Each structure stands twice: as structure tokens, then as C-alpha cells.
Amino acid sequence: MKTQVCIIGAGPAGLLLGHLLRAEGVDCVVLERRSPEYVLSRIRAGVLENITVSLMERLGLDARLKAEGLPHAGFNLADGERLIRIDMEELTGQHVVVYGQTEVTKDLMDASAERGLEVIYEADEVALHDVESEAPYVTYRKGEELQRVDCRFVVGCDGFYGPSRKAIPEKVGQNYELVYPFGWLGMLSDVPPCNHELIYANHARGFALASMRSPTRSRYYIDVPLSDRVEKWSDDRLWDELAIRLGPEAAANMTRGPSLEKSIAPLRSFVFAPMRHGSLMLCGDAAHIVPPTGAKGLNLAASDVHYAAEALTGFFKSSDNDAIAAYSDKALSRVWKSERFSWSLTKLMHRFPEDGPFERAMQVAELDYIASSRAAQTSIAENYVGLPV
Ligand code: APR
Ligand code: PHB
């Protein structure tokens, strides 16, 4: 097969990029290791910044998002019994939309056929070749057959564990990584949320987050030691812990119910630079990971894809090489600012095992400052709704 762009990975980044390129008449193909069902089975975060919403709007794929997405004007930081509301709408004129990442992926997936976006699922042994040349190619196995895709650019949208980042020589790339000393235990339950907005809580017993997927489906998290196991958390034990950590007001409004899903995920901050090497570009989790505290993962993938689609369209339609050359610096500039915000909110809202009384006093002082300063709340608000693209 010969095409202009070979995209590896059919998660939100790969599908969003594929649709944007097809909409501009750029030929591309998406190679995905898993089945569509497997891709949709992943439970992921659900807060969309304006960049993600606007790309779906631009593609005309926002009908369900508009119908089912929940606009949120604010969110809350809980510190013991104190609830600090960050009024994003009032402070920045912008809001976020609560809509599951899985739903975004489903909307993109469902539109692939009608939009002429070729996605090859269950493509095994995907391997990148000659990415430093202007004629790279990708091989993969489909059943017994070894297939080859000749292209001008390869875009790695294959997540943290995919092969694309590893195709960049070690002497070229630089890893930046921080692994956090806890994970998040997440639970999905078909019960109404305890608050109409999100609550991030820093309690003496640990972190908690009250989120949602709809007015009848809640998503909750607590932080747990990395040694913890989900089997040790019965629904009752988790509901009891959430009620304590989220505080009395949230607990009073909390509806309990059976968990539909419970799992523990590790937290890390990670960046790989550069995000382009020769004819290979990286987007999304293939290049960076953020702790979920700032709800940035999907939205950073969206801004990467926005820049990559602009650069690739310019290359193929106007022979513009400059945007391709500038892609990595442009994407990383926004990546680093989102990494900083996600890291800082994680530091503010979690109790770290190595922290002592001074570090806790710094958290209390920062929360006091945020509670009393419009400037501090505006800074948090503009980062949470998403910095300009
Ligand atoms: N060959 C083909 N596809 C692969 C390979 C491979 N060797 N390895 C991984 N993939 C696929 C995965 O199966 C997955 O569907 O690449 C896709 C990567 O998707 P994501 O991991 O969802 O990453 P991305 O599209 O960048 O989306 C970022 O996802 O993990 C969350 O928090 C993250 O919200 C963020 C979002
Ligand atoms: C979620 O709803 O899954 C969610 C929301 C906000 C976060 C992380 C996860 O910061």
C-alpha cells in the first residue's frame, strides 16, 4: 500500500488526526494493534477542553457531544471541610465539557467508514522503517500476511507502550520522567453524582476525586499505595473511604451503588523530546504522560494533533516545510505547560509519603492563598480550561 501519512494507533489521537487529514484531502491509513471492541473497553478520563470540543465541531462529529456532554463552569478543591470553588466561567469566560474519552473515541470510530478513513484493526507486529529518510515505510502482519505501507510521514499515536517513540535513536531523544509514589483506584457506578461539579479533595487519609459521566453515572477515585490491590477494596470499603475523604457535605449527598468497574492505575509525569525525528512525528501518549489530576491527557493529545494536522496539510497542499520543522517545538511548548499544571495540582492535592509537617504546611498555605486570591484562582482556572493553542 502507498499513502501520504501512516498513523500508528487508533486511540483518540490517531483517529482525530486521521479524520482531520482526510477532511483536508490528505491520504492516510491508521494501523491499530487491537480490535475496535478492545479500544472502546478502556475506561479513561472525561473532561474536555475547548481544543478537543472545537476539533470535534470542526469535523462535524460533535452531535452526541453536544447532546450528552455536560458543560461545567467550575470545579472544587476540598481541604477537610473547606470547599474552594474555582469559577472558571467567571474567571476566564470559558468552561470544560464532561464527556467520556471513550465516547470521543466511539464518535471518531463510528464516523471512519462514512468519512473514508481507513483503519486497519488487529494489525500485528507493526514496525517502523527508514524514518530518517523521506520514504519511510511501516510493516505489519494481518493474519499470516506481512503487509507494507509506503508513505511520506509516519505519525506515532500508539500510546506510551507503542513502538514509535522507540524508533527514535536514543542519542537523539531525551526522556523526562517522574513516577509518583501512589496510584489512583477508580470506580464507575450508575448512581447520581454527589455534586453537580467535580470535587478534588486533599484529606489527612489521602486524595479523592468525585467526577461523573452523566447525571446518572458517577466516576470516583482515591489514591492508594502502589502496593495496593483492587481485590482489597470492596464496594462498601471504597464508598466509606470516599465519604470520609470528600467531606461531610459531599458524603451527605453521596448515593451508593454497585461498581461497574474498579481498577488501579499508576501515576507518572513523562515527556519525550523531540516529538519529531526525520519523517516520524509523535502525538499524544506516545510522547507524553500526565498524572490524571489535571484532566490533561486527552486534551494534550488533541493539541498535538491540531499542530500535526496543520503541519502535514501545509506540507502536502502548499509544499510548506516550515510547519513540519517547527512541529516539535510548538507541541512541546504546550506540553510542558500542561505537565507543570498537572504536576503542581498533584503536589497540592496529594499527601506524599516522604512529606513532613513543612510540606503539609505549604499545602495548607497554598490552599489558603487560592481561597483568598482571585489571581491564584484565575491561574488555576486558565490552566484547567486549557491554555491557548
Ligand atoms: N501497533 C498498533 N497500535 C498500537 C501499538 C502497536 N504496536 N501499540 C499501541 N497501539 C495502539 C493502542 O492499542 C491504542 O489504541 O495505540 C493506541 C494508543 O491510544 P491511547 O493509549 O489512548 O493514546 P492517545 O491516542 O495518545 O490518547 C491519549 O489516552 O491513555 C489516555 O490518558 C491518556 O487521555 C489520554 C489519551
Ligand atoms: C474522570 O472523570 O475520569 C476524571 C475527571 C477529572 C480528572 C481525572 C479523571 O482530573
Number of helices, counting only DSSP H or I runs of 4 residues or more: 13
Strand order of the largest sheet: 6-5-14-15-16-13-17-20
Ranges where pLDDT stays below 50 over 5 or more residues in a row are none
What CATH architecture of one domain do you see? 3-Layer(bba) Sandwich
Hetero groups: adenosine-5-diphosphoribose, P-hydroxybenzoic acid
In the CATH scheme, the class of one domain would be Alpha Beta
**Alpha-carbon distance between the two ends:** 34 Å
Class based on secondary structure composition and strand pairing: alpha+beta
Estimate the global geometry from the Cα principal axes. globular
Helix fraction bin: 25-40%
CATH superfamily grouping of one domain? FAD/NAD(P)-binding domain
Mean pLDDT: 97
Cα Rg:
21 Å
Q: Which topology of one domain does CATH recognise? A: FAD/NAD(P)-binding domain
Tell me the total number of β-strands: 20
Major beta sheet summary: 8 strands, mixed
* Share of residues in strands: 25-35%
Keywords for this entry:
389 residues; alpha+beta; FAD/NAD(P)-binding domain; six-stranded mixed β-sheet; 38% helix; binds adenosine-5-diphosphoribose; binds P-hydroxybenzoic acid
Could you give the topology of this structure?
Blueprint: E1 5-8, H1 12-23, E2 28-31, H2 36-41, E3 47-48, H3 50-58, H4 63-68, E4 70-72, E5 74-79, E6 82-87, H5 88-92, E7 96-98, H6 101-110, H7 112-115, E8 118-120, E9 124-129, E10 137-142, E11 145-150, E12 153-156, E13 174-189, E14 199-203, E15 206-214, E16 217-225, H8 235-246, H9 248-252, E17 259-273, E18 276-277, E19 280-282, E20 288-289, H10 297-318, H11 322-349, H12 357-372, H13 374-385
Bound molecules: adenosine-5-diphosphoribose (APR) and P-hydroxybenzoic acid (PHB).
Adenosine-5-diphosphoribose binds next to helix 1 and helix 10.
